[in-house]
């Protein structure tokens, strides 16, 4: 074995002795773990310690109490609704693109944007219950339409 290499007891890799810290109590004068391993261990020890400190300070209790509050419920429900809506949107987009590839619906780029009459990029839905009732819009007009709707509390019918 090359004497300039040393096996790290943590990662079991042979590494140059320069990546090992000095430890006079060891027979070769070097630490058993390489520097990256020492660092990783110190980090996980630190995070365990800070987790423990958080628990000791009543963190779990606070978390449980917070979970019962109306605010936490609202946040949870909003997340759930958003993820459901996203799935619904994905299904509708899949339906629309299937119709486009089947030739049942023109590709949006073959149509004119309803806003600026330039070439459209994508389809906008007024109502997700009618997946094929779509409005061709260019990217810019589509973004401004959604911004407008958001600002005015209007939303796509779900
Ligand atoms: Zn190592
Ligand atoms: Zn446009
Ligand atoms: Zn839209």
How would you describe this structure to a colleague?
It contains 4 helices and 6 strands, in the order ββββαααββα. The longest helix has 32 residues, at 70-101. By secondary structure, the chain is an alpha+beta fold. Bound molecules: zinc ion (3 copies). Residues 8, 10-11, 13, 33-34, 36-37 line the site of one zinc ion. One zinc ion (ZN) is lined by residues 113, 115-116, 118, 137-138, 140-141.
What's the layout of helices and strands?
Layout (H helix, E strand, L loop, with lengths): L4 E3 L6 E3 L3 E3 L7 E5 H22 L2 H10 L1 H32 L20 E4 L8 E4 L1 H13 L7
Antiparallel strand pairs: 1-2, 3-4, 5-6
The structure holds zinc ion (3 copies).
The site of one zinc ion has 8 residues, from α4.
Condensed summary:
The protein has 158 residues and is of the alpha+beta class. The protein folds into 2 domains: 5-52, no CATH class; 69-151, no CATH class. The chain is 49% helix and 14% strand.
Give the distance, in angstroms, between the N- and C-terminal Cα atoms.
69 Å
Estimate nothing, just give the exact number of structural domains.
Answer: 2
Return Rg in Å.
30 Å
Which structural category fits the helices and strands? alpha+beta
Cross-sheet strand order for the largest sheet: 1-2
Q: Write the element-wise H/E pattern from the N-terminal end onward.
A: EEEEHHHEEH
Cofactors, ions and other ligands in the entry:
zinc ion
Number of strands: 6
Q: Helix segment count?
A: 4
Global mean pLDDT: 93
Q: Can you give the helix content as a percent range?
A: 40-55%
**Overall body shape:** elongated
Low-confidence stretches: none
Biggest sheet features: 2 strands, antiparallel
| Oligomer classification | single chain
Strand content: 5-15%
